[in-house]
């Protein structure tokens, strides 16, 4: 049994087709007012009194449903235990059969995070742990992380301790504050803490410049430009609207670009953290035909996004090359190809740069994280209640997301399989079995370490 933070129950990942009867030991229920559970999704509960106590003046949050209002809960729950779904993709990219680590398991959701900021309070976390223990879960998958505190002061630490004392293995996210040291979260010795690693799949497209230089980018856009045509290429700073400041144009922020300067062109936008999808929305708004996203720093991630127009995110070095080409070419041109899903990418797996690192900042004798699992560009179920951005109203049943939250349910699914085969094993035995039999396969060197 797996614990997350809300669910989109209509997802095919939570269909009870070919799922066995609900276990007789199950004591949970479905207290969401707007949907019913089934043999797959056997529990849905919500815990919000802590949030209410801390936010008495917040009248904008609805507490009558355990529905997923961010996509995070559906994604993680389906990764852990989602049923088989054929022809799953993100706007046609990465097409294949989606399934969780334990696809025939029964799953439940315990929603503890509320509002757009995803605030999760200790009172609600503890209440959810108590309920999960009482309901009869076997595995807790906790894709939650925050700043470490002493164990006796942390709701996660205390709740996880009581779950483990009741024979329930607790799998936790290590956090996304890497690559700095001593950033790993959920460092309790009784939990199984998961780091995120890459996979050997990527969603690549290619930028061809007017000088015939071809550069690889990443994207999840469903669009591409006609293959036989090059388009004018311009730095977004030079397409600034008269009433906008240069910094906003540099980042292609909402309302910062001019239609007359951008129409029919490919714009180069500098990545900023708020929402890269909305940069593409702004370029499309002013008539741009495509967008190339570049990084300001070499340590920035290169990640595919579900853009609304042909777009490619290139790395720092290639971004500098593109800017040099624009600045030294009278009439710079470019083309952006359609996205292709590539397999067998090397090296893989490697630890994601965002994945939090040890050692533990509470007690350096506790070695964390315990293990790594796939956590970059993971395709799984998503909430169709969630638009892709403030200015992008598209919905999608599946999404590629990155984070230790995505890595955690991979391990939770494995823990569920082990528990099914060895129901008498303790949480410590399951944790030991996973950690001591995990193999890091170096694809480049073809050796096992």
Describe the structure.
There is one protein chain. It contains ten helices and 22 strands. The chain is of the alpha/beta class and 449 residues long. It has two domains: 12-199 and 348-442, 3-Layer(aba) Sandwich (Rossmann fold); 202-343, Glucose Oxidase, domain 1. Strand 13, helix 7 (276-285) and strand 14 (290-294) form a beta-alpha-beta unit.
The CA-CA distance between the termini, in Å, is: 32 Å
* Second CATH tier, the architecture of the largest domain: 3-Layer(aba) Sandwich
Q: Look at the structure and name the CATH superfamily of the largest domain.
A: Peptidase S8/S53 domain
Main beta sheet: strand number and arrangement? 8 strands, mixed
Q: In CATH terms, what is the fold-level topology of the largest domain?
A: Rossmann fold
How much of the sequence lies in strands comes to 15-25%
Note the total helix count.
10
User: Given the C-alpha coordinates, what overall shape results?
Assistant: elongated
Give the low-pLDDT segments. 444-449
Number of DSSP-assigned strands: 22
Determine the mean pLDDT: 92
Q: Structurally, how many domains make up the residues?
A: 2
Question: Would you state the CATH class of the largest domain?
Answer: Alpha Beta
> Radius of gyration from the CA trace?
23 Å
Short description:
Belongs to the peptidase S8 family. This protein has 449 residues and is an alpha/beta fold.
Give keywords.
single chain, 449 residues, alpha/beta, Rossmann fold, Glucose Oxidase, domain 1, 8-stranded mixed beta sheet, 22% helix, 22% strand
